[in-house]
Amino acid sequence: MTPLLTRTLLSVLLVGCSGTQAQTAAPLASFASAGGVTTPAPLRTTIRQRIEAHMGFLASDAMGGRETGTIEGEITAAYVASVMRGLGLAPAGGGGLYTQDYPLHRSQLDLDSLELSFGGAEPWAPIDDYTLRGLGAEPLDLLGEVVFAGHGVVDSESGLDQLAGLPIEGRFVAVFTGVPPGFEGLDERVHSGTKRDAVEERGGLGLILLSGEDDKQAARTRSWLRRSATHARLVLGGATASPTSLVRVYPEPRLSEALLAAAGLDFQTELTERAEEPMTPGLVLDGVELTLRGEVAVDELWAQNVAGLLPGDDPELGEEVIVVSAHMDHVGVNSEGAVHNGADDNASGTATLLSVAETLASRAEPLRRSVLFLAVSGEEKGLLGSEWWVKNPTLPIDSVIADINVDMVGRNDPDSVGITPSPEHADYNTLVAQAVAAGPGVGLSVSWSAGEGKYRRRVDTYYSRSDHANFAEKGIPVVFFFAGEHEDYHQPGDTLDKIDFDKVAKVSQLVETLVASVAEADDRPQRLVD
């Protein structure tokens, strides 16, 4: 698609859909007579047909990977908005629009200026020797000693705190990736994000993730970070801007070993002993002082969420809202020019959202409760779009009684879909129980695990990794449908030809069944774990 054609298509789609202006929460009553809302025509396509059509557009090469902050990202938002308008949903992005524009800061690290060294060792080379995460809008200029804290686990449920008693403030903290064995469910609760948060709360300068040659998950993380090293990082702008995140350093295994060796420690010995004795106290690495400096270029841009409301008709329950969410963005084009189509991630979830919207909008009888269909951007950049929406809701946040989130539901076992939170999770709730019960009715087993072979994992592991997490932080009951990772996750191979459209159609039916059930019930969704 040529730039001229791209912009022409955008201008057509954007008419009446978007605009950068103040967008604030509006009372639900204001949507009942919103301009432009019409009674939708009866369904003219099958669920599978409409899903194939939506995904065919969203995951095409012409959409360039739908990266947030790009012209293709805007076209994606305009497409979703135009579909919602055609279905007769009320514009719920604020200001009478379907889109909610939000500001971003884009920061680009100057790799040539980057310096990372410790002690008297030679400076490490970016990309070849290490990768970084957590860059903000400010230049890097960090200098501090290094504290070693085993696996760096802080977990109240197991009573394990490997940072306890350590002088962390103003220092870097080096930890092994993963978790020590022997603690049930620990790997589902603790990951690099929770370690980052624990170090940040204690005033640390940065987190160093140490890994060995046989750590395949760490190798995949470093590989992904190497591919994205030349990409800019996005953070929220405006009055609710995201704070600069703690810098995380991912050394190659040989340099993980060298860092500990500089303080007279053997990597493998420490890994073995601290796995066997996880309560072994951490220590300051004598004589190891780390320097991290680099220049960062910053500019500002805008991205879009898209929101359409199906108003409920009950005088009281109609003021309560069920959110159906899915992220419409993906990761764009890689450094070799290959498009990451993101067919499964997450054209499948976006198509599911639009299909459910069409089915429910075409009901002969309106639902009792209102339903907000919310397609967000910025998920791949750190759940930014959903974070912006919950901080700047376009309808009263207190009216939201549930979030039903759909992400990557087009691959793996054709007769099963994963779900979280499980009964072992603190946020387990009636939404989940209803979904599990409804699954067989649409030909799906609803499972606590998803993926196949080496990619099969408990879905609770992903609880903080998609947009429902921002609603959960507000105390809103959530359920997350997820069919699992696969070899094409965040790869150019995530293409339409590998999608199981029948499975996506079944997930769409399951979500529609769940939404209708919650919308018609007398009681709100409730947590089931005391």
Feature tags:
single chain; alpha/beta; Glucose Oxidase, domain 1; 2 domains; 10-stranded mixed β-sheet; disordered N terminus
Please describe the topology of this protein.
Elements: H1 3-14, H2 47-58, H3 71-86, E1 90-91, E2 99-109, E3 115-118, E4 130-133, E5 140-148, E6 154-155, E7 160-161, E8 172-176, H4 186-189, H5 192-201, E9 206-210, H6 216-227, E10 233-236, E11 247-251, H7 253-261, H8 267-276, E12 283-294, E13 296-310, E14 321-327, H9 343-361, E15 370-376, H10 384-391, E16 400-406, E17 416-420, H11 430-438, E18 445-447, E19 449-450, E20 457-458, H12 468-472, E21 478-482, H13 501-520
Parallel strand pairs: 5-8, 8-9, 9-11, 14-15, 14-16, 16-21, 17-18
Antiparallel strand pairs: 1-13, 2-10, 2-13, 3-12, 4-11, 5-12, 6-7, 13-15, 17-21, 19-20
Please give a structural write-up.
The chain has 530 residues and is α/β, with parallel strands linked by helices. It is 28% helix and 22% strand. The chain is built from 13 helices and 21 strands. The chain has helices spanning 3-14, 47-58, 71-86, 186-189, 192-201, 216-227, 253-261, 267-276, 343-361, 384-391, 430-438, 468-472, 501-520; strands spanning 90-91, 99-109, 115-118, 130-133, 140-148, 154-155, 160-161, 172-176, 206-210, 233-236, 247-251, 283-294, 296-310, 321-327, 370-376, 400-406, 416-420, 445-447, 449-450, 457-458, 478-482. It is globular and about 75 Å long. Residues 1-16, 18-22 and 33-39 have low confidence and may be disordered.
